[in-house]
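Quick note —
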Amino acid sequence: MAFIRCSVLVILMAIVTLAMKKGDKDVKCVQITLKSIYGKPESKVVVDKDNAPQKIKDISVWDQISALKCVDGINFFHYSHFLIVKGGCAATFKVCYEKTPVVTTAAPLTTIQPGCTKVRLLSRVARPVSKDVGGTVSSMRLLQNLHTKVLCEEGVNFRFEGSTVFAELGCRGDFEVCTGAAALTTPASELTCKKVIVRSTRKKPGQARITDSKGQPADLESVTLVRQISSTIPCKERVNYFVFGSFIITKQGCQACFRVCYKNMPTTAVPLTTTPLPDNCKQYKVLRPVRKLVRDSNNRPVKVTSVLLVKEISKHVCRKGINYFYRRSLFVANGGCKGIFKVFFEAVTTPAPLTTQEPGDICFN
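Predicted structure written out below.
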């Protein structure tokens, strides 16, 4: 009986040993030392021997250096390829990652699609860069990451608006930028989504203004919290972050990455200057604060139904419902908002009042 038990134990140990050897081929562990001095955060991208970023699978404190104990989720944490310490935490960490298999059948990342160009953007942490490509950008794709410590992520540290591409927060890389007909053939109902990071402190709120490809305030369809950045203060909707018009506002230390989606405006419309305005619409050029009573062609007050900002003259100031809006027959624009507006109203179908005097009316002679 004892012999059988020993045989079973030996077999089990052999199976575990084989499984560990097999697992070691896929999971690699390295030692990384990070120190948060005077509470200043420090981060590092986990890479393999070929300097390729690897997604962290498991992390633990190997050797505690600081007197303050490092606690996961409190003063050190990780996401994707990044390991971050803060609040005085200093330690050597055991970081394990699963080796990402190399796909050999995919086309090279440096392949440029027809109708697209290659653009290199080299930003620094405190110095964003931008470049005008001379046409409305329809898509932007990372071809090669040129920084070993900062990973370029779309919507986080590189993006595009109109004919300009941007890189910031240390993102450095080569990008495939496509312009032209692709932007004009986008259906009006198709959603465009991107990621934005909004940070606040306990005393200072943070905000991000979402604009479409034309630089106009976007009509947001959805806002989703993708990743929590602040480790001690959880972000909760309508508690410490809010969606107001085309703005995302955070406060009380909430810091997070959000995924926002909005509808693309039609780009094939006929220019406004070539088509006469309909009878139930008036166009106003606003260069100073106005409070205007909207009237029809017969000088009668009408009920305003909508206001459209055709072109903003001020620089990203106009906000619908904030500094330009309408109430019944009034159109109001103030707070530094300058631009060209279309004001639509209900056409009055009732006849003019009987007391209106017309030339030669015998009732008033």
